[in-house]
Write a structure and sequence with these properties.
heterodimer; A: alpha/beta; Rossmann fold; Alpha-Beta Plaits; six-stranded mixed β-sheet; four-stranded antiparallel β-sheet; 10 helices; 12 strands; 22% strand; B: 253 residues; mainly alpha; 77% helix; 0% strand
Chain lengths: 287, 253
């Protein structure tokens, strides 16, 4: 019998929250969001949007949810401005409102210089920004974004997270997104679901989940390979790569370890608590 | 906060989607020009050489048969490739997540390619008549006949595009079907010159009725047989569109 893409998932996403879905490739994340937007059917269970079954109210989903798929070349023949205008109008805005929405989104995403360029002529990063803008066209109160920062350079990744946070704070838009970029996503994520093999293996606020895995602090040391630092004998280190160690510390060890280190011999060091990426690795890789 | 928006009316959806489809002209005009115009004209020239000795009736068949070919290349082929592209590249998913009806999308695609094919149909008929020396006697009913011919061919193209696993497979099947429809029955060649069994089999092909209806409305005279052709074309159109609606993966796949 074929293994289901996902199974026994039960979760509630609250209005106005920023919800992240993490998991390895093939964990069932994209299947889950496609089910949320009615593209795929579920063999069992129900999905509700604002209390209404999405199966019984398909038009309610399409007018209230903006979806950005991982890949899509639907609007390749259209210019950037046309893609935004038509999407906003088809989502139920009047022609005048759709025109205003196009201008707002062009300005918001810095796409004004590309207004008349065909989508097929955009770079990978520009196309990703256009797809984000298209998902927002018509101002739906819920956004579902499948890997919104793939293909983006650090500057544009920051732009995306900043805009999503701003939207959430100013307009209380509910944002659900899939990402592999756990470190960046941590800046805006409010609750997270971690999936493995089609199952939900962790759900909650990152802070809560971090407390469940461990309370250890991470000390990362960067140094010239020929001059490794000297650590107190009770400290074990893990070699991340040549010239980079990771040391797990209890909070009471921190002061002693830091005072024993010759910081002048290090290229750099970082001390931090468990990150969202640690959570992801912990839950996604745990057998 | 819910935005209280409702889907657009069906005509407004069709109009927007039609405008989107018409932008296909940006990439398809070269193939339209080459395949849907030049290929039928070359065929007219080549078949015309042989048909001249067979008399004026054979030339009438060559002309209208090639207008049907222009319709098959321009509408059936392009609708096939458009649906296959949308299915493979995520376009159908995009439209399925917007508040638009599946039938509005199907209708817009067909209407779009019908409009985009009109120049090639006019050029094929006009230049073909000049090349073959066949006098045109155009009936106003042609305005009804061309869409009636286009609908079943578009439906067949859409089914091939939706069912094809890859663009290559879909394109190959479409070419095969085009050749079969053109060769099956009295489309390019008068029935007197075909074996009886081929004429009989041709009655199951929409191309036969399309060629017959075009002959009557392009070259005259219009007879009662046109009603039979239109009825057959509408029946083929209804069945093919029912199948398109059934096969098109949309929401809740």
């Amino acid at each position: 019998m074929e293994q289901p893409a996902n199974q026994d998932i039960s979760l509630q996403i609250y209005q106005g929250e920023i919800f992240g879905i993490l998991g390895d490739n093939g964990a069932g994340k994209s299947t889950l969001v496609k089910q949320m937007v009615n593209l795929l059917s579920s063999s069992a269970g129900t999905i509700e949007l604002f209390g209404r079954s999405i199966l019984d109210h398909p038009d309610f989903v399409t007018t209230q949810v903006g979806y950005m798929p991982q890949e899509a070349l639907a609007l390749n023949n259209l210019s950037v401005g046309e893609a935004l205008y038509f999407t906003a109008h088809l989502r139920g805005m009047s022609r005048k409102e759709a025109g205003q929405e196009r201008e707002r989104l062009l300005a918001l995403w810095g796409l004004e210089p590309l207004r008349n360029r065909y989508s097929s002529r955009l770079s990978g990063g520009q196309r990703r920004l256009l797809r984000l803008a298209v998902a927002m066209a018509g101002s739906p109160p819920v956004l579902i974004l499948d890997e919104p920062t793939n293909d983006l350079d650090p500057q544009r990744r920051k732009l995306v997270w900043d805009i999503l946070r701003q939207l959430n704070q100013e307009s209380a838009i509910t944002i659900i997104f899939i990402t592999h970029d756990a470190i960046e996503a941590e800046k805006i994520i409010q609750r997270v679901a971690i999936m493995r093999d089609g199952r939900l293996v962790a759900l909650g606020r990152p802070g809560q989940l971090k407390q469940q895995i461990d309370r250890k602090l991470r000390l990362e040391l960067f140094f010239q390979p020929e001059l490794p630092p000297t650590l107190p004998p009770e400290c074990n280190h893990h070699v991340v790569e040549t010239g980079r160690w990771l040391v797990m510390l209890d909070s009471e060890q921190v002061a002693a370890v830091m005072s024993s280190l010759d910081i002048a011999c290090l290229d750099d060091f970082r001390l931090y608590s468990a990150t969202l990426e640690d959570l992801y690795l912990h839950y996604a890789e745990r057998p | 906060m819910l935005n209280g928006r409702k889907p657009l009316s069906l005509p407004a959806q069709i109009f927007d989607l039609l405008l989107i489809e018409l932008t296909n002209w940006r990439w398809s005009w070269r193939s339209m020009l080459i395949i849907a115009t030049i290929a039928p004209l070359l065929s007219i020239v080549a078949l015309g050489v042989f048909a001249r000795d067979a008399g004026p009736e054979a030339l009438r068949y060559v002309l209208t048969g090639n207008v049907v070919m222009a319709l098959m290349f321009g509408i059936m082929g392009n609708v096939q490739s458009r649906f296959n592209f949308m299915r493979v590249m995520g376009g159908l998913d995009f439209f399925a997540t917007l508040p638009v009806s599946k039938f509005a999308l199907i209708l817009a695609v067909v209407l779009g390619f019908l409009l985009l094919s009109l120049p090639s149909i006019v050029v094929t008929a006009g230049l073909g008549a000049l090349i073959l020396g066949v006098p045109l006697s155009i009936s106003p009913l042609i305005l009804l006949v061309v869409p009636a011919c286009a609908v079943p061919l578009a439906g067949i193209g859409a089914i091939i595009g939706i069912r094809g696993r890859t663009p290559q497979e879909s394109g190959a099947i479409n070419l095969l079907v085009t050749l079969v429809l053109a060769g099956l029955g009295p489309v390019l060649i008068p029935p007197e010159r075909l074996p009886d069994w081929l004429v009989a089999v041709g009655r199951a092909s929409p191309a036969t009725y399309a060629a017959s209806a075009l002959r009557e409305t392009l070259l005259g005279p219009v007879t009662a047989a046109l009603a039979v052709d239109l009825l057959a074309l509408c029946s083929f159109g209804l069945v093919s569109f029912w199948l398109v609606g059934r096969y098109l993966d949309w929401r809740q796949r």
